[in-house]
Each structure stands twice: as structure tokens, then as C-alpha cells.
Amino acid sequence: MSIELITILMFGSMLVLMLMGLPVAFSCGTVGVVFTVILQGPSAVNIVPTRIFGLMVNYLLDAIPLFIFMACILERGA
């Protein structure tokens, strides 16, 4: 299966799920898990939590919600 076809199928699936009223986060997650199972096999789904945990222990990512929080405080404080 070519990368172009996979891209079109994933984007179309996500668009259909969002048009059905599913939130963006759940649409992305559903499409990601379904296409992981289809393209890589069911055993590949077990790898995802270990990869996510490895990324979440990166302390540099703490700055993102703190900058958003700071912007909210500055917006309301003026």
C-alpha cells in the first residue's frame, strides 16, 4: 500500500469521525490505533504506551502548559 493512499485513507477517516461529532482527540486516537493494527499488526499496539511514556518523562515539555497558563493569567490581569 502506498504512502499516498494511506494518507488519504487516514485523513478521510479522521474527517468522517469528526463529522460524526467525535472530538478531535478521540478521532486522532481512533484512527491511529486502527491503522496501527491494520498496517503493523495487533502486537504493535503494545509498543505505543511505552513510546508515549518515554516522551512524557521529558521535562522540557513542562514549559508548554506553563506558557499557556501564563498567557491566561496575563490576559485576565490587564
Walk me through this protein's architecture.
The model has no long low-confidence stretch (mean pLDDT 89). The protein is flat. The chain is built from 4 helices and no strands. Helix content is 76%, strand content 0%. The termini are far apart. It has helices at 3-19, 24-40, 47-56, 63-77. With 78 residues, the chain is mainly α.
Count of individual helical segments: 4
Order of helices and strands: HHHH
Please indicate the percent range of residues in DSSP E strands (runs of 2 or more).
under 5%
How many strands, what sense, and barrel or not for the largest sheet? none
Compute the number of strand runs. Answer: 0
Structural class of the helices, strands and pairings?
Answer: mainly alpha
Radius of gyration: 17 Å
First CA to last CA: what distance? 54 Å
Residues in helices, as a percent range: over 70%
Rounded average pLDDT: 89
**Uncertain segments of ≥5 residues (pLDDT<50)?**
none
Shape: flat
